[in-house]
Prior knowledge:
The complex is a heterodimer.
Chain A: H1 2-13, H2 21-37, H3 41-62, H4 66-73, H5 76-81, H6 87-116, H7 124-149, H8 156-182, H9 188-217
Helix pairs in contact in A: 1-6, 2-3, 2-6, 3-6, 3-7, 3-8, 6-7, 6-9, 7-8, 7-9, 8-9
Chain B: E1 14-18, H1 25-33, E2 50-53, H2 65-75, H3 84-87, H4 103-117, E3 121-125, H5 133-147, E4 153-157, E5 168-170, H6 184-188
Parallel strand pairs in B: 1-4, 1-5, 2-3, 3-4
Amino acid sequence: xxxxxxxxxxxxxxxxxxxxxxxxxxxxxxxxxxxxxxxxxxxxxxxxxxxxxxxxxxxxxxxxxxxxxxxxxxxxxxxxxxxxxxxxxxxxxxxxxxxxxxxxxxxxxxxxxxxxxxxxxxxxxxxxxxxxxxxxxxxxxxxxxxxxxxxxxxxxxxxxxxxxxxxxxxxxxxxxxxxxxxxxxxxxxxxxxxxxxxxxxxxxxxxxxxxxxxxxxx
Amino acid sequence: xxxxxxxxxxxxxxxxxxxxxxxxxxxxxxxxxxxxxxxxxxxxxxxxxxxxxxxxxxxxxxxxxxxxxxxxxxxxxxxxxxxxxxxxxxxxxxxxxxxxxxxxxxxxxxxxxxxxxxxxxxxxxxxxxxxxxxxxxxxxxxxxxxxxxxxxxxxxxxxxxxxxxxxxxxxxxxxxxxxxxxxxxxxxx
Lengths: 218, 189
């Protein structure tokens, strides 16, 4: 699993790997919002947690179709599937690689971009925490969707349609935790629910992803 | 696609599958490799011991030749044998990104993977595509001396003569009648 993770990370940071695509998208959305909404600090601070969360979610969505598509095109996927690595671990390694290249940079960049949106200082830890807990779930759900659509031509649209409804609970609880943090309300409940979703994803989705891969590989 | 195919191989034995395009050679190999279930029948002894090589080499353009082989060695938890670069004439290409290799060189890299993963049963689907005569000879030498000669087993689907003097299985008589192929629902799933 370490070998596969290392390979995917190496491929992501080399030329054409698409590392930074999600981060750049995140940056662009957050920078553009004040131009669209207007520079009033009170309004921006109010919508900042939601904007940051929606932007992070869309940024994660952007690179999902690459998770398995490239391995499918060059024929690596059947070779990986016949390797001694269990298919579930393959799914987990792929999701982890996606999170490290997409989710983790978003988590790190979010507080900086929060400043641009006048997010109050007391919200920062909550925003960081909610993104740190929520983005792995986004990667895991996305990997599952990518496995379902890997064999399809132009599967990107279908992938978005499958994945977006599954992203909604993560978005609701993630943005809610950040919003409550921003307003100084207790944010433990949405964070716990978010953590519950995340743990459920870690426990179940690698198996679902592996099953989907076995079907698409036939 | 195929029906009534039956064979058994002992260590050191190879088998060449013959048959027209689209007859089911690839399907048979994929089934033995465990990538798809057989509609009926049994496969014994392959599974965890099998290494599969398809038409495609699964080469990542951004990785170098050495990194590619190192990755497969790590994934299969084997040591990267030093002589593999000599064996497949890749010594001069070690640090070249795989994306800059020619089709034949890429194929050699794909085949070198087989020497790295250390599997006893090799399932080879058209291994010599885009190889020149010299490289075919080298590959045949690898199969004879480094694989079959050390007790390995190989099932090879190929249209050319590898010069290995292996027994051949003609699949044409095993072509399944159309009605035996299952309904359209089954094909869809």
